[in-house]
Specification:
alpha/beta; seven-stranded mixed beta sheet; globular; binds adenosine-5'-triphosphate; binds magnesium ion
Length: about 650
């Protein structure tokens, strides 16, 4: 069987269904082939040990190293090619590190961490802005076999404290501050407070001084990266070969639906899964440039800023700054300048751009760009249409989770000829035995517009979570169910499958609204509302109602607020929107109210916090809000609801 590589179109495989089927039916054969995409110190003896379900051990007996695969192994062929391209529109810095330079910097960082006592299996918490040292730290950890735990920079001390306590790091790597829209976020006071709050105390804190914020040092604990690095300018630190099943990192989910879960990832399975995804999904070739606009604090940053592109021998862009500063063309100017071939972003970012001048999309030469991948949230059709028309490139919706580490649903560009359908993230990715299950009976639904819960029959493919960090029982009880003797993983997302096998995600299982016995996905109503030309973004939640059980409530951000001059104008727009929903979905789905806000409450990763909106609407406690971005956004809703 031959597989399509971008740039070699004649070998494109025509039948993706066969490719997918083989990945499930001949799991061993399929994944042992993919395993050849990475370097092993000693080859795996067994592809998958599933003797203790739902725990899956991939590539048992093999030893490898993530940092070796991302950095060292490219020295032979591409030492002087770009590896890490750092761009900050906050400090106006731009610096390109070749693979050779990256190799050197990572070893310096590894040497310093070793001096601070870090050994294989130790945890290192990384609380950093988007600067090269953050990438060095991640790679240095995996080089040493230490387990990194990256916490999104600028999270408040409460969120940080719980992560310090849970991961119990020997060392924390941090910096004086991050910058956002020209304003400094001072990290050090947040970090000091978090360490004070946490029962676990790190032995050392390694600090990068960027000179953007004050950074008082705690004697005996805090060390400065600059001078320590100087001591190791020429130190070489070899890669520690670890078992394929050795944990590479832990990372928390975004906290959209409640308390974040600590996802633990392995080494060998992850390396193979990423290498395979770069080939079959993203079609990135060695020597090209990949640009993911995410942050290292999220799973996309782990998989597709750091490890995936580097494993594939690509240069990766690490961008610090806003998508609209100095203007909404900044990303596209980087595509032109660095000849980006593959780009990855999130619908929430595209909606931000949608409020900017569309001419910025055609101002730069984007001829190298082959596709834009989007993930993290439902991609509504109007947004997909807008960006697709503006760029004139394929827009590919990816559906996945922190837990899985790489896509569950996508169009696999490298092995599938199928076109995208707007509103759908495509079909099950190879390796995932995706099932749509009835949430009441657990029975498999055939598809054809019947709604069900998106599940994956075990074992999960390589690269997915091994367990919840230090809590196997929570892993099993949170995610797994045994149905007719088979272990099934739940995504907690609700979906439908059309006759061509394309899935549509309708929202989270707890976002289902039950209006007078009709079960509706908030996503369906949002989709309808956002097709109104003046709606930029909308969140719909179900609110308890004495008569109907629940009613839908909508909170919308308008594109052009100048039209909302007074109460009458708002009511008029509300009426228009309700008519739209009546037409698309029927009166049963019509929101009780459509209210207008300037911004929606979101997690720091850009996901709408529907559960918090719902709690406010029902005058309940809002629960864990540690990952919320802008508290003022929720206040606007509170004012509307109580006002
Ligand atoms: P938590 O699990 O802590 O509540 P979270 O689910 O938001 O937070 P992530 O792992 O960052 O944490 O997000 C994964 C979820 O994001 C998916 O389960 C799904 O609900 C949503 N999602 C991701 N990609 C898509 C997509 N392409 N289309 C629709 N929804 C998506
Ligand atoms: Mg989740």
């Amino acid at each position: 069987m031959r597989f399509y590589w971008s740039g070699n179109e004649e070998t494109r495989m025509t039948n993706y269904a066969d490719f997918h089927r083989r990945s499930i039916e001949d799991r061993e054969g399929f994944w042992s082939e993919q395993a050849k995409l990475v370097d092993w110190q000693s080859p795996p003896q067994q592809v998958c040990d599933y003797s203790n379900p739902p725990f899956a051990k991939w590539f048992v007996g093999g030893t490898t190293n993530l940092c070796h695969n991302a950095v060292d192994r490219h020295l032979k062929d591409r030492a002087d090619q770009a590896a890490l391209i750092f761009v900050s529109t906050e400090t106006n810095q731009e610096k390109v590190y070749t693979f050779r330079e990256l190799h050197t910097e990572v070893q310096r960082m590894a040497a310093v961490l070793k001096d601070l006592g870090v050994q294989k299996g130790d945890r290192v918490l990384i609380y950093m802005p988007m600067i090269p040292e953050a990438a060095f730290a991640m790679l240095a950890c995996t080089r040493l076999g230490a387990i990194h735990s990256v916490v999104f920079g600028g999270f408040a001390s409460g969120a940080l404290a719980s992560r310090i306590e849970d991961s119990a790091p020997r060392v924390i790597v941090s910096a004086d501050g991050g910058l956002r829209g020209g304003k400094a976020v001072e990290y050090k006071p947040l970090l000091d407070e978090a360490i004070r709050l946490s029962a676990h105390k790190p032995e050392s804190v390694l600090l990068v001084d960027r000179q953007v914020a004050p950074m008082p040092l705690v004697e005996g604990r805090d060390r400065l990266w600059g001078p320590l690095r100087e001591k190791h300018l020429n130190t070489s630190v070899p890669c520690e070969w670890v078992d394929a099943t050795h944990p590479s990192y832990t990372l928390y989910t975004s906290g959209t639906t409640g308390k974040p879960k600590g996802v633990q990832r392995d080494t060998g399975g992850y390396a193979v899964a990423l290498a395979a995804s770069m080939k079959h999904i993203y079609c990135g070739n060695p020597g090209e440039t990949y640009f993911s606009t995410s942050d290292i604090g999220w799973v996309v940053g782990h998989s597709y800023i750091i490890y995936g592109p580097l494993i594939a021998g690509m240069a990766t862009i690490m961008y610090e700054g806003l998508p609209i500063r100095p203007d909404g063309g900044i990303w596209w100017s980087l595509v032109e300048k660095y000849k980006v071939t593959v780009m990855f972003s999130a619908p929430t970012a595209i909606r931000v751009l949608k409020k900017q001048d569309p001419a910025l999309l055609s101002k730069y030469d984007l001829s190298t760009l082959r596709a834009l991948f989007l993930a993290g949230e439902p991609l509504d059709e109007p947004t997909a249409q807008w960006i697709s028309a503006g760029l004139g490139k394929p827009i590919i919706d990816n559906y996945w989770q922190t837990e899985t580490g790489w896509p569950i649903l996508s169009i696999c560009k490298g092995v599938d000829d199928a076109a995208s359908k707007f509103g759908s993230p495509g079909k099950p990715v190879y390796g995932y035995d995706v099932k749509l299950l009835d949430d009441q009976t657990g029975e498999e639904l055939a598809g054809g517009d019947v709604k069900g819960v998106v599940c994956v029959e075990g074992p999960l493919p390589p690269g997915c979570m091994q367990t919840v960090w230090r809590d196997d029982a929570r892993f099993v009880s949170t995610y797994w169910k045994q149905l007719s003797g088979k272990w099934v993983y739940s995504t907690f997302d609700w979906g439908v499958k059309d006759k061509d096998g394309y899935f549509y995600i309708l929202g989270r299982t707890d976002d289902v609204i039950n209006v007078a016995g009709h079960r509706l996905g908030t996503r369906e109503i949002e989709e309808s509302i956002s097709s109104h030309p003046n709606v930029a973004e909308v969140a719909v939640v179900g609110v308890a109602d004495q008569l109907k059980g629940q009613v839908a409530m909508a909170f919308a951000v308008v594109k052009d607020a100048s039209q909302l001059t007074d109460e009458a104008a708002a009511l008029k727009l509300e009426g228009e929107i309700m008519k739209l929903v009546d037409r698309d979905l029927g009166a049963v789905a019509r929101p009780a109210r459509v209210r207008f806000v300037t911004v929606l409450p979101k997690t720091r990763s850009g996901k709408v916090l529907r559960r918090a909106i719902q709690a406010v609407c029902e005058s309940r406690d809002t629960g864990d809000l540690t990952t919320m971005d802008d508290p003022a956004a929720l206040q606007q809703i509170r004012d509307l609801v109580t006002g």
